[in-house]
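dTDP-4-dehydrorhamnose 3,5-epimerase, pasting as requested.
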Amino acid sequence: MKLTLTPLPGVVVVEPQAFGDARGWFMESWNEARFNAALAEAGLASPVRFVQDNHSCSQAGVLRGLHYQLPPQPQGKLVRVVKGRAWDVAVDIRRGSATFGQWFGLELTADNKQQLWIPPGYAHGFVALEDDTHFLYKTTDVWSRDCERAIRWDDAAIGITWPLPAGLQPLVAPKDAAAPLLADADVFTL
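Structure tokens follow.
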């Protein structure tokens, strides 16, 4: 397993090792001991245990996010795409952080097998880049209606560049379209 640090503290790209031959390939998509050892080697804290797995399927142009949960049930997420392609984004929402309001994005695909670790304190979102995109993520806490929050996906103060296919407008859930801007949102405080 290889970890690549991003410009956002604690957010890392995870590249599991895949072994392939003429029959196909095999990879260990999750191994707690190896993940924690790789984080420690990078000087990062290990997450609490993952307690929930989620799986979504989206058509091209479906944009989900920017979602997060506040304490007492903040969520860290380990995300990946197992079919299709998605542009995945983490946004630092830790008021007082040197990178507050900054974002990092990358394309996750079934072919590249990359994952993104997003610790608590970051909002998360993605847009499906092709039909029938299957997105899986492990979370460090269960979903909580009382702790759930969202920030507008198109907040100009954040300035995320969403790479939508030509002529395709994002399809956003009503609650995401009505989410507040970062300046007005309940966020983490350092």
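Note for the archive: The longest helix spans residues 32-41.
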